[in-house]
Amino acid sequence: MNFIFQSSPWWILVCLLVGAVYAFALYQPIPRFVGSGTATGGFDKRTTYGLAALRFVVVSFLTFLLLNPLIRSLRTLTEKPKVVLAIDNSESVAAAGRPALTKALAELQTLQKQLTDKGLDVSIHTFGDSISGDLTQIPFTQRTSDLSGLLSSIRSDYEGRNLTDVVLVSDGIFNQGLSPTFGQYPFAVQTIGLGDTIPKKDIQLKGIIANRIAYLGNQFPIKAEVVSSGFQGRAATVVLRQNGKELGRQSISLGKNETFNQLTFQATATQKGVQHYVVDVLPQPGEFSTRNNRQDVYLDVIDGKEKVLLLALTPHPDVKALRNILEKNQNYELDVRILTGTPAEATPPADKTYDLIILHQIPDNGGAGTALIQKYLAKNTPVLFVLGNQSSMGPFNTSNPVMQVNAQPNQSDKVTGVFNPEFKQLNLDPARLDILSKLPPMLVPYGEFRLQAGSEVVLWQQVGSVRTTKPLLALNVTSPRKTAVLAGEGLWAWRLEEYALTDKQEVVDELIQKVIQLISVKEDRRKLRVYPIRNEFVAGEKVIFETELYNDIYERLYDKPVRLEISDEKGITRTYNYTPTDANSRFEISRLPEGAYRFRASVTVNNKAEQASGQFVVRDLQLEALNTTADHGLLRQLSQQTGGKFYNASQTEELVRTLTNRPHPARLTSTEEMNELINWRWLFFVVLTLVTIEWGLRKFYGGY
């Protein structure tokens, strides 16, 4: 520790001079006459010198502080070498038997004590559980093993510290994250292998392959992958069930010692909502574990296909092109009607409601579709107009909010499409849309085009090499009826030419599909919205609900009590009450068992009940039961890569010798600090004490 002056040290002499002058001026002898007139000082000589010295010190020091000197200090810390015991506390470690595990943990307890006695700083890390001093009490209940994540968290927690070794105690099985051998670690990983490396006599339902969504009335496949070991020459039975009812069973042959079989069940979606199916391999005598014989499958069966009416004046290649584009999306249920066909083919069912109407060359010059389009336009159903040489511009202009076309009779232009880079509502790749310039021209009405307020252009018209300001494809999603207009015919030629150029039909189809999706999407105008943050949760984690409540003008509301009812597959209902606030609009539910759940939320706003409903799934992942054969080879590879060594559970004494015999010098960390002397608070009390002593002595001896 030393002083650093921000000005010349010669100023210290000035400070001392100021203190001396001040003390001399205050305590110089004051003559007074006593009796015969002899002059004496106010205090005796010793007291005068003492008080003058106190005043000299105080004034000189205060003046010295005005120079703002700095104090430089150097602090050195000694950090002992650190060792982390990283213990894999997953379920698979305990699968080899608790007695052997308890013995291994007792040896680890001894290992920890021996390393500590040798001067090493030892700490313990596991998968999330807090550990007390007794390692034998670790609960091996973690449902997943992420060894890479465990080592990465240790690397992050001890960054910049004197961590020399990590002792990873594991069976080498991981079922989440990357392989730990892919990571780079600034410490040596010593590994201790637990578990049994001998394959068990077991049958495992290794995986299930199924869609997440199925449509009501459709068939869907459920594929099961079965792995077996030690049952050569036998046969196993796999069963598919729903709600305890058997839907099908199949037999598989276990011909070899280790076999892999894949089989497929066909099921039919007969009910809407989340449906719970169970695939089960019937147990065999002598199986090591039957926990991995079953897996659950959850499918969301929906009757949610959007009903689309394609209404055309006459048969046309564009009608076939639009049909092919729409049928690529399984979410659409397409109804094609030709007005000039037979009455049965021309007239849609009177009681059927559509989510989207596509009008090809309607309104027409003959007025054939006038009555039908008035019926559908009155409902504000989204519409896509496709213009052609039979389109009637007058009725078209009065029935769409996108554009006005003042066309010359029986005249048309041949134009290609150019993407509008200012259009941002759809995620379209401009580079891919460059192919539009190579496609055959469309026939569009010849005349003036004027966009309506709120309309946006997707494609501009280009005549030859001249780009115009006339729209070819435009839409308006701000009007009460969302509408798009394709102002020309020849879509079929676009698709054919794209296939000739690329052997695919992707760019044009994606463009039309996304425009249709944009105008047909339904706006959510509910005042109460309660929904889980995910559709699926894992058993043991919290199920979290988000809550949104709005008033009549769709401003957020808070502090209204919400009632939430959750029902499981058995019909058991759990009821919760909570109040969302501006600071926290979420509600959490813990410890829901595995299953499919439906929920209903209700709240009262302005004496009116608002409701929201939905469904979610809680899955019980049996990842730890899928593989119980220890992988010590992975542990050996990890140790070799990081400069460590692999040990069996009985070799802890050798590990102690390895860690303690290697030179691990303590790390010295020096920190230099600069601080202003005036910031030392205790100096204030020293000065105050000196001033108080001087003042007290002056009063005691009669001074003023």
From TrEMBL:
InterPro entries, A to Z: Class_I_gatase-like, vWFA_dom_sf
Keyword hit for Transmembrane: yes
Annotated TM spans: 49-71
Keywords associated with the record: Membrane, Transmembrane, Transmembrane helix
Keyword flag Iron-sulfur: no
Superkingdom classification of source: Bacteria
Gene3D superfamilies (alphabetical): 3.40.50.880
Protein name in UniProt: VWA domain-containing protein
Source organism (scientific name): Spirosoma pollinicola
